[in-house]
């Protein structure tokens, strides 16, 4: 399952969100949910499920007397971290401070978010001194 870069597309991310929220789900349940939320056809959803299984981020089990059931192998937090690292590397040369600087130039951060960032930085600083 662990790869250097899994590279989930936006469509694959949508299927994974469905499974993270409500999984495990049968193929039929995933198809119904994706039809309702995205308007996708059965074949589109099945193609994406197959692709995600090939990437090793979900698994399926065929019950003896029942439908195939899909479950995520990748936690949402791990996928988000991977996507964030990829974005930072690609757009900001891996610099978190450059990204924050760019974001704050266009819009002011609410005091609550500033306080959260300050607390995170303070916690990181304290870890380094331990």
Number of extended strands: 3
* Low-confidence runs of at least 5 consecutive residues: none
- Determine the structural class based on helices, strands and strand pairing: mainly alpha
Q: How far is it from the N-terminal to the C-terminal residue, by CA?
A: 34 Å
Walkthrough of the structure:
By secondary structure, this protein is mainly α. The chain is built from 6 helices and 3 strands, in the order αβααββααα. The protein is 66% helix and 9% strand. Helix 1 crosses helix 3 (42-55) and helix 2 (27-38) crosses helix 3. The longest helix has 19 residues, at 111-129. It is elongated, with a radius of gyration of 19 Å.
Tell me the layout of helices and strands.
Layout: H1 10-22, E1 25-26, H2 27-38, H3 42-55, E2 58-62, E3 68-72, H4 76-92, H5 96-106, H6 111-129
Antiparallel strand pairs: 1-3, 2-3
Helix pairs in contact: 1-3, 2-3
Key traits:
130 residues; mainly alpha; 3-stranded antiparallel β-sheet; 6 helices; 3 strands; 66% helix; 9% strand
Quick structural summary:
This protein has 130 residues and is mainly alpha-helical.
